[in-house]
Amino acid sequence: MPGAAVGADAQGVHAVGGPEDREPEGAVERDGRGRSRHEWSQGRSGERVIPACRGCRSSAKHPTGHASDPRVGGPFRENQYWTNLFIYRYVAAVFPNQTRPLVTAPAETAILSLLLAESPLSRVELARRTGLSSTAVTKAARPLIDDGYLHELPPERTAPGAGRPVNPLSVTPDREFFVGVKISADTLYGTVCDLRSRPRVHASRPLVDRGPTAVCALIADLVDELLDARPEFRSRTRHVGIAVSGDVDRPGGRVRYSVLPGWRDVPLAEITARATGLSVTIANDVKALTVAEHWFGDGIGTEYFALVTIGAGIGSGIVVNGQLIEGAYGVAGEMGHISVDPAGPRCHCGSVGCVEAIASSDAILGTVRRATGHTDLDFDGTVRLARDGDRAAREAFAQAGKAIGVGIANLVSLVGPERVVVTGEGLDTYDLFGVHIREAYTAHCFKAAAKCPLTLRPLPWEEWARAAAVVSIQALFP
């Protein structure tokens, strides 16, 4: 790809072009001392300083897609710049299977991310939405067009007598494909998605041996099955995204802790990359789903957004200023481990009264077993009891709903999202605790925060795999 590209030198070592390959873009503005915000300037120590963001020319609020520019948050010193460039190239050489950015310039990132969600758009609309000049939009789009990721649609007039027709830009969905794999307690779910996250084929494999090596070998078999489904898949697929529950170190490619497969400190990305020969990105499953909904689902166009999952576990993901919040240690947004009852049951995390310890499907099942004495009862049987009017079963679901409602209220009062999507396999039993969720949510939200709507969204298992594929698409961006 011209400009900032992933390429190879004569020795076959992959290198990533950095921001130094591009000239500053957009209209030139000058500050009170006559300095251009898009030119190199002198810092007090004599070091060269790059403005906070060359995409939208602001460090306060950024359009979706380029707020992750490493310059965001203050001056970006030259010594740090060269350090980051060295890291890019070191990682490229030592870890050739590691996913690396397709685009590194903020303007390209802003344009491509917007078009991924909302193609087609005219250059005028792209300029308006990103805050870039028309010239900057044209310049940033050109390498993406040349490399086949974008294409121009036939000219169209915006209105009678409106002047020269415009050529809208659109993403080329089949330019590249992405595999997504969701690891559940007993099944691997896989899908192949195009560049706009549309699933093209699904497959699944039962999970018998949960050991990391066995699971990664099974993932490799599943990936082969998916890529063999159509001739074009294998030649245009470089990336695999994997979604797994628990504490996931996404940059390091490790699963620190996951209760469902029973893993601790597993280098999942490295093992899977060796097994498949593809670049691998891993993510917490709920955070992956949050990214997918924000980019391509109910969260499109929101700057503040949250997603809550209910079922085998209780999870949540949070978007602030258009960016997923992962926190310093990658565990931000763990609503399931907010304590809502100091006298409640002990959670598997070691705390007491967590939302998950009260409201997960296993927690509800355990409560009903203890109350009824039916130790051989399964969760489906618990649901039947509750729907048949059994008092203990109905009370267990009511307490679960209250715990979830209080947890969502805490999240909304803290973050103030525009919308909360509630999803997960637990929605199948929403009739048993939905009213309790909404009552507790309304009662515990702080004043106007209760205006935030709760949107229910059914979630087939294949959607988890799609979310994993979206994470691998996201990894193309810096």
TrEMBL record:
Key words of the record: Kinase, Transferase
Origin species: Streptomyces venezuelae
Domain of life of the source: Bacteria
Stretches for region Disordered: 1-47
Membership in a protein family: Belongs to the ROK (NagC/XylR) family.
Protein name as annotated: Sugar kinase
GO molecular function: kinase activity
A Pfam family hit: ROK
Chain intervals with Basic and acidic residues compositional bias: 19-47
